[in-house]
From TrEMBL:
One of its GO terms (cellular component) is plasma membrane. This is MFS transporter. The chain crosses the membrane at residues 7-26, 46-65, 72-93, 99-120, 132-154, 160-182, 213-232, 244-264, 276-295, 301-321, 333-354, 360-380. It is found in: Cell membrane. Keywords: Cell membrane, Membrane, Transmembrane, Transmembrane helix. Residues 8-387 form the Major facilitator superfamily (MFS) profile domain. The lineage of its organism: Bacteria, Pseudomonadati, Pseudomonadota, Alphaproteobacteria, Acetobacterales.
Length: 389
């Protein structure tokens, strides 16, 4: 396998930032989109599931292509395509058309994060990887910190269509910059790396470690990234009567906690160990969800969001680091499988929790997610997602 191109970690983090904003930009816009198309917010939530369904499903192909075509090359092309399709969402004339646009956007963007993380796995030794992943995490953190407020603010002043145009153009521009820096390697022939097509996925399925890891990722996606987190802005808007911009700002405080974690990741792993960090993060997230479910004032949710940012990456960061070692000789395949598990779980979670919200309200949905995280945390303790020593 040829040596991976050398690209500054902060450019890789910026690519993750662009991808993260494009993924989450719809969350604070759901009530606005629902009002424009004359539907309920719970119906507009299908936009989240549509994106995540194709995002997760695309991993079957992107992992195999990334190991042979080049991880950074594939990420650059995906960024450009994701941006262009997002811009085209501006022309949607109804909810169904926008759903199709988000499905295509999910398909186009599926390779970005897995390929960037696989590239880090290829170029950074494992004992340094948590720290470098923490730097990469800054892109996702800043997307959490700025994406919600920016999306809500642009939406309030220029409509939700203006948000699609702005974020789409930004994402496409990052893809073009990465292509330019890769230079001639963008035109190089496909390599011969990887575990031999779908044999890589077969190897993952045969590994008890990999199966546990993928199940943990799916539960993570279903309970948090699809189940609870996307609906907090709508909860703040509808139950506490906040504007989309203020709701996005409160949810963005999640990024403050995540930023604290990214600065402490190396010390935390060294002091607590990955298994203890995983359990602590899971139980802490459950407590934050219970607090959100019972919150009498939006200020309580603000505090819970900051804590959730720290705890989520304590939990999810360990899973990501382990994912880079699930199939070391074909990391694009292993990280694609990880992302597919995560986002298929997220799609299912979005659909299930939208139904729970429609029948029982936001608070019941958040409490249900909290109960689920308690179970996941104890399961991770009993069946740790790590290789035997």
């Amino acid at each position: 396998m040829s040596a991976a191109p050398r690209v500054n970690i902060w450019l890789i983090a910026l690519a993750g930032f662009a991808s993260g904003i494009g993924m989450r930009m719809v969350d604070p816009l759901l009530p606005m989109i629902a009002g424009d198309f004359g539907v309920q917010t719970s119906q507009a939530a299908i936009l989240i599931a549509a994106f995540q369904l194709t995002y997760g499903g695309s991993q079957l192909g992107t992992g195999l292509i990334g190991d042979r075509f080049g991880k950074l090359r594939l990420a650059a092309i995906s960024l450009l395509a994701f941006g262009i399709v997002s811009i085209l969402g501006e022309f949607a004339g109804g909810l169904n058309e926008l759903v199709w646009m988000r499905m295509i956007a999910g398909l186009a963007s599926g390779a970005i994060i897995p390929m960037l993380m696989a590239h880090i796995g290829d170029t950074v030794p494992y004992n340094e990887r948590q720290a470098v992943l923490g730097q990469f995490l800054m892109g996702n953190v800043m997307a959490q910190l700025l994406g919600g407020p920016m999306s809500g603010l642009i939406g309030e002043h220029f409509g939700w269509r203006g948000t699609f145009i702005c974020f789409g153009a930004f994402t496409a521009s990052i893809g073009l910059v990465l292509m330019a820096l890769l230079g001639r390697s963008m035109l190089a022939p496909m390599g011969t790396g990887g575990a031999g097509g779908f044999a890589g996925y077969a190897r993952l399925l045969k590994s008890p470690f990999a199966r546990r890891l993928m199940l943990a990722a799916a539960l993570d996606g279903a309970l948090l990234m699809g189940g609870a987190f996307p609906f907090i802005p709508s909860f703040l808007i509808e139950d506490f009567h906040l504007s989309a911009a203020w709701a996005g700002l409160i949810v963005a405080s999640f990024g403050l906690g995540a930023m604290i974690y990214s600065r402490m990741a190396r010390r935390l792993v060294g002091r607590l160990g990955e298994s203890n960090l995983l359990v602590m993060g899971g139980l802490g997230l459950a407590i934050c969800l219970f607090i959100t479910a019972a919150a009498p004032h939006w200020g309580v949710i603000l505090v819970a969001e900051i804590a959730s940012g720290f705890l989520f990456y304590s939990f999810h960061g360990v899973l990501q680091a382990r994912g880079t070692e699930a199939l070391p000789d074909s990391r694009a395949t292993s990280m694609a499988a990880f992302a597919m598990s995560l986002f298929l779980g997220q799609s299912l979670g979005a659909l299930v929790f939208a139904g729970v919200m429609a029948m029982a309200g936001y608070r019941a949905a958040f409490a249900l997610a909290g109960l689920g995280m308690v179970a996941v945390a104890f399961w991770c303790r009993q069946a740790p997602v790590r290789e035997a020593a």
